[in-house]
Design a protein that fits this description.
This protein is of the alpha+beta class. It has 4 helices and 4 strands.
């Protein structure tokens, strides 16, 4: 899937399409908390596989049971269809 920049109208509706995500500094942002490090790391592994399938990789960090993910498409200079697709896949991973 090729990266297509989102239009300003698309970006305005992102919080409706992805209610658990927020827009922070022009990026899709979400924080996750798990029972422990193993659960957080397992989640990150599943996200890594989804990201590889899309060839689109998150900016993320992990401290013990917390994972922070930010999505943006550097090639397009902002948000793209790939960010939306990866966010949806991440949400599906959690049920």
């Amino acid at each position: 899937m090729a990266a297509q920049p989102l239009t300003p109208a698309d970006i305005e509706t992102l919080t409706e399409a992805l209610p658990l995500w927020s827009l922070v500094s022009g990026k899709l942002h979400r924080e996750f908390r798990f029972a422990d490090f193993s659960e957080a790391f397992g989640f990150m592994t599943r996200v890594a596989l989804a990201a590889e399938a899309l060839n689109h990789h998150p900016e993320w960090s992990n401290v013990w049971n917390r994972v922070v993910i930010e999505l943006t498409t550097h090639d397009t200079g902002g948000l793209s269809n790939l960010d939306l697709a990866l966010a949806r896949r991440i949400d599906r991973l959690l049920g």
